[in-house]
Amino acid sequence: MDMDLVIKNGEIVTASDTYEADIGIGSGKIVAIGRGLEGNETIDAKGMHVMPGGVDAHVHLQLPFCGTVSADDFENGTRAAACGGVTTVIDFAIQSAGKTLMETIEARRKEADGKVCVDYGLHAGITNWKNPGVWDEMEEAVRYGIPSFNEIFMVYRKEGWIADDYDLWQALVVSRKLGVLICVHAENVFVTESLTEKYLSEGKTSAYYHALSRPNFTEGEAIQRAITLAEAAQGNLFIVHMSTKEGVKAVAEGRKRGISVSAETCPHYLVLTDDLFKGENGHYYATCPPLRKQEDCAGLWAGLVDGSVQTIGTDTCTFTTEQKNMWEGDFTKIPYGLPGVENLLPVLHTAGVNGGKFSINKFVRLVSTNPAKLFGLYPQKGTIAVGSDADICIFDPNRKVVMDYRELQTNCDWSPYQGMKLNGYPAITISRGEVVARDGKFVGKEGWGRFVKRKAGGHIESNC
Question: Are 231 and 284 in contact (CB under 8 A)?
């Protein structure tokens, strides 16, 4: 068998197994796994973990928000993904006023195609839920290869993005029929708006009031409400960027009742806390939902360990210090978002695997296999198997790195993880058989990535 590339002497790590073998790659696919394989080119992975590339199902590249546009565009943002061992990202096509859903999707593809450096997919972001033709548009999106609808915002009323309970109920009913995921940003809009108005009227505008205006119960209540609706509709619910221990409890209880509900959290909710808002540059750390307390970090870790939380996504939405400083002392004017896709694997490996919270197999499950299954990419993505795409991260578990934004690909001129001591780092990233990054440096080419069509029902087949 003619093989373009063979990875030899590494330790293959999947969501369920760890073993030593060679991997043979041809025409962008894994074509053989065994001993003594030979190819046109060889990579010696001795001492390395050979894992499926990361699947980050939650990124926002070149997103217009809060009077600016997120700093990492499709080209640079996917370069950053490659340097961090992530080989597939899923971004958003968020509908704007007067545009049909398919027009929105095609417009977003024009922004990405020819620029992306790793493979990508899109979630369809419907904002015009009252349009009677929206359900036909959902079916069309599924046929196009987009079986997830995000983010359904229970907040952002003033921005015109909010979906009320009527919209969410209707979407969940249709999700059962189409076998799709309804992905929800869960916060109680009326309470958060009320608290925001209260603090502003009292002249309390510092960054810490971003957190105080969105207390834990505003997320916990919204998640519980969404789960209640999903149970009644027998729909398929996915909670994005969950940040609270109350959210973990609600999802765990829902899953025990047999409800089709799953959830992601993000690295920043696992290793950072709201004390950062009290610092001189506390506004840099504003994201939505906000950073929480240490007990919430502990609750989220526990949820990852026991399976109540199934995936890690980064919610990457990069804003520079100049963009963050647009706030001018008013927490309501901060562009919410943090950089993250480039740091996903090393931060989670350091805190999760090296931190003794879970195994290397669980790590692979959380950052690659589970998101691939839930979002209809598996087994094309998310595993090491004959016939799968040769999307591979060769990960050095012994490499020690001190996080420094100046060494990263991202356009962001700061890092929420600055100075963090990392144990383990991607050595080589391979996208469909091509080496695209080495030792944190991009060596691929712009436009290498492709739009990936996903299939509906992946979450139903999954045992996540």
Answer: no
Tens digit of pLDDT for each residue in 64-104? 888 899 999 999 999 999 999 999 999 999 888 788 999 99
Residues 267 and 344 sit within 8 Å (Cβ to Cβ): yes
Instruction: Give the Cβ contact number of residue 197 at 10 Å.
Output: 12
- For residue 298, the number of C-alpha atoms closer than 13 Å in the C-beta half-sphere is 3
Burial 328-356 (b: 16+ CB within 10 A, else e): eeebbebbbbbbbbbbbbbbbbbbbbeee
Tell me which residue of 250, 341, 236 sits closest to 303, measured CA to CA: 250
- pLDDT tens track for 102-153: 999 999 999 999 999 999 999 998 887 777 788 889 999 999 999 999 767 7
Domains and CATH numbers, the chain: 5-51+384-398+422-442 (2.30.40.10), 53-381 (3.20.20.140)
Nearest to 345, CA basis, from 399, 305, 300:
399
